[in-house]
Amino acid sequence: MSTLLEVSNVSMRFVMGGLFSRNHIDAVVDANFTLSAENPEIFTIIGESGSGKTTLARMILGLEKPTAGDILFEGKSAAERNTRAARLAFMRRVQPVFQNPFETFNPLKQVDRYLEATARSLLGARSKADVDAAMDDALQKVGLSLKEIAGRYAHELSGGQLQRVAIARALIPNPALLIADEPVSMVDASLRMSIVNLLKELRDTLKVSVIYITHDLATAYYISDRIIIMQKGHVVEMGPARTVLDTPEHPYSQLLKSSVLSIDAAGMGDLRPADRAMAEAAWSRAGQGALVARDDGRMVRTA
Amino acid sequence: MGDVLTVRNLKAYYQMAYFGVDREVRAVDDVTLTIRENEIYGIAGESSSGKTSLIKTFAAAIRPPLKIVDGSMTYRFGDLEIDPYKASKEDVDAIRWKHLSYIMQGSMSLLNPVRRVKKTFEDFAFKPMGLPRAEFWSKVRAHLERLGLSPNVLEAYPHQLSGGMRQRVVIALATVCQPEFVIADEPTTALDVVVQKDVLAMIRDVQRQMRSSVVFVTHDMSVHANITDRIGIVYAGRLVEEGPTRTLFTAPKHPYTAHLVASLPRIGDTTPKAALEGRPPNLADPPSGCRFHPRCPLAIEKCKTDVPPLETVGSDHRSACWRSDEVRPLAKIGTPEPEVVA
Ligand SMILES: Nc1ncnc2c1ncn2[C@@H]1O[C@H](COP(=O)(O)OP(=O)(O)OP(=O)(O)O)[C@@H](O)[C@H]1O
Ligand SMILES: Nc1ncnc2c1ncn2[C@@H]1O[C@H](COP(=O)(O)OP(=O)(O)OP(=O)(O)O)[C@@H](O)[C@H]1O
Ligand SMILES: [Mg+2]
Ligand SMILES: [Mg+2]
Do residues B276 and A190 make contact, with C-beta atoms less than 8 angstroms apart? Predict the structure, then answer.
């Protein structure tokens, strides 16, 4: 068995501040996981806002250098991809969908120009017909068409349309690994299901592995093979998605599941903040202990 | 309870010329509604149905090519009555500062990247709040903590914060002055469910204390269920149903609403949900008659030709459907256990 991605003992510390304060933030602490090349899977990262999910994604993409640990993609580290050709080859294999589509697209550039650039540089499409076909093909997969978006700027599209354009762009080079940072946060339930079904189909038919970062436990349950749950830079629980989400063991995982909004109390006006006792239990244990393997295949951070 | 915003037959279209061909996107088409004092009014609907366009017109924040084509809109704050589209620019600016607050979709990207968060607070909130400096900062800090943020974020530059932290900074900026009318467009999309619940509870708390009006836009029906008092459902630029939140969830009178409520995936579900047939309509060339008819399970011939008016179908409840009597809920909404008060 060969590995597609290997993340070993990866940590990231940001040092902030000026002359007087030397604050630091441990955005990611000792993350470990491996994706296999033969068995593509949907690997979901869920967790607290500010727990290091985006930072982890950026390190895998080579946009940020870990302060400790190694990240190998198909056996190579970012430092080994030191030529333009090597970086291009990497980008053909690994594609990102960034968190906020409003930040992804430059307001002065028509959105189809991004797709065109990707089709030309990464897919190697030459003629206008080939480029257009590649763009339209990718857009159709997310419920859009080239006709609908051609010539339009980011502010001329709705939030959900923009988010889908970002996914379509990433699909153009037929990557082996898609790193999608909250790719469906702005689309309605119906479209959301069709996009996560698309991710599933990519895995099953094109053998694409997907790192799916999300706050949505329902779609995570529906499509993920494995899941990791993060809190304050630490992985607190990791394992088969349904095992973990059916019976979460770490207090933070439990808090997360219990905080999912239900529609049963629709309109009753009794929304309360997240359960304080559970939250206290979760916060007080943040970062303590080590990951311990359980019989059911999961690992739980245990003091 | 007074009406704060009264909207009558409002039409706002994007009017453009592409290669000499006129194109018109009818994003807000004949919307009539009122927003009351002391309520949270939710606006729901699928991606690109026109939610953002609608509330941009509410916020008097439209720019070409979006134009008001018809209709009227009046705000009433105490004795002040104003139609922003007929008033002078000075008067509109004045109500924007004093009464209105608009959190734009994705606005965390609008935080100035080269200014520390604290400078942004100073720029936008110091003057309107009119407090002495020390008091101002202690109020800002307390407000950030209510949103689950450490006051240290004031020292940070936007790129040093995570997506959800930036989104909360924007909410804090827009609510710290406690405006009477808040318009929020997908303000909690980047938050984890724990933080989201706290933030929603905070918004509701502040709203109840102030008896203010909040227009809350999101595609997420579970958020609507928990925070809104009334909901307006938008489909292809039109308001198709409006009513008290509980009523829309338990007894919808428009087939599209029934579908929206039922389409919510729940944890534990691994069975694929039936997606709506067909694609969202193209607003440059919307379907005739009822715009939902090509995707509607109840559609009859009449729906293809005649636009159904938004009519009263129950207490405080309006629906635009020729067959509203026959609409049945597709989802079962439970009744939560009553809280035992000790
Ligand atoms: N460039 C940076 N400099 C300093 N600190 C940073 C930087 N980027 C991220 N951080 C900090 O690292 C932590 C993790 O941030 P990250 O963006 O990875 O979180 P996240 O899990 O993606 O959160 P969200 O769900 O809110 O998007 C946060 O505390 C953030 O403030
Ligand atoms: N500046 C613009 N020029 C032309 N068309 C526009 C412009 N802005 C938005 N539109 C179009 O108007 C329609 C409604 O968009 P709007 O942003 O109001 O939708 P929305 O309901 O907020 O969707 P989402 O939930 O995805 O944010 C879409 O078809 C969109 O492409
Ligand atoms: Mg993030
Ligand atoms: Mg929108």
Answer: yes
Going residue by residue through chain A, which has 303 residues, state the pLDDT in tens, using 9 for 90 and above: 799 999 999 999 998 765 455 678 899 999 999 999 999 999 999 999 999 999 999 999 999 999 999 999 999 999 999 999 999 999 999 999 988 888 888 888 899 999 999 999 999 888 999 999 999 999 998 888 999 899 988 888 888 888 899 999 999 999 999 999 999 888 888 888 888 888 998 899 889 999 999 999 999 999 999 999 999 999 999 999 999 999 999 999 999 999 999 888 888 887 888 877 888 888 887 778 899 999 999 999 998
Domains and CATH numbers, chain A: 3-302 (3.40.50.300)
Alpha-carbon span B192 to A48, nearest angstrom: 6
Nearest Cβ partner for A161 among B48, B245, B265: B48
Give B22's contacts (C-beta < 8 A, 6+ positions apart): B15, B16
Nearest to A263 among B264, B269, B270 (CB): B264
Q: Does B198 lie at the interface with A, CB-CB under 8 angstroms?
A: yes
Which protein residue's CA is at the shortest distance from atom 7 of ligand 2? A156
Whose structure tokens read 């999910």?
Answer: A53
Query: Domain map of chain B by residue range?
Result: 37-63+87-234
Assigned fold of B37-63+87-234: Rossmann fold (3.40.50)
Angle between helices A159-171 and A128-141 (to 10 degrees): 120
ipTM of this model? 0.91
B45 interface with A at CB cutoff 8 Å = yes
